[in-house]
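chain below, 287 aa
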Amino acid sequence: MTIAALLCRLVAPTRLAGVALSAAAGCSAALAYPSFQVNESAIPGTGTNVISVDRMGVSYASQIFQQVAGGLGGGDDPFREVGYLQITGYGNGAAILPAYLNGMGSTGYGLYATFSIDGETDPGASSGSVHARFLSGHLTLWADVNSNTVLGLAGTGSGISVQGSSVSDDVALGTALLTAGEARLFTSMVGGSFSADLRLTLNGTGQQLFQLGGGNFYEYLHLSGNKTWAANPAGVLGSGGTVCSSGAGTLSASPFADVNAVPEPSSALLLATALMCLALTWRRGQD
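prediction:
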């Protein structure tokens, strides 16, 4: 079973400057992870603000190139997904935390990551569904110090890549390698949901930004959320090709790998409106 039969449109570049928390998704209490500190003054030019966080909202855009290896519906069909994600906000428990992240003006900054995932797909347990297994992947985390980075996706097939402008002043924070992950895709829902664990390595700046009160930062990142398609859903389960994908979710951290059951798509969107409203209200108060 394959992911895409339609040639993907070029994903429009996304400006990270001043983006609010509109695409962040929440996680339920069952998916709660331990808290850590974010010291925003680690980003050059950002004001002093230290907050306790147990999750970060994310939004992302990607392209997926699917090949048919086992015959249509035969399974074990390889795919590669290439894209970027933006950190849209910080939260802890029921609270959404005010921050300089994605704020306007000289004290604002952005956080983003570029990523690639390789895996295989098989027919899902239900009709019209696909189960994708993530076999390997890599993520690089960056700080957009001056809130001026513009990212986009170019190319099709095996030539898909992330392209950016105004990236020369961005600061690397660390890298992460995939340890486990999966996605469940449904044509009737024009998308699906995903969950992944990644082993994190922070550099010096990353360790200043993300802290554990003097100890080493958590070893694992946990990423989960929803996927949607920029294509007719009938083509998502077609005969191979390239498809655009986007979505929202949460990024957390802990000492242990823990890929949870892939969340239901409807449950991961409830926090978005609250995140956006609080973020906009707080930032207006700072202007």
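The first strand starts at residue 14 and ends at 15. Helices lie at 204-209, 233-236, 272-286.
thats it, cya
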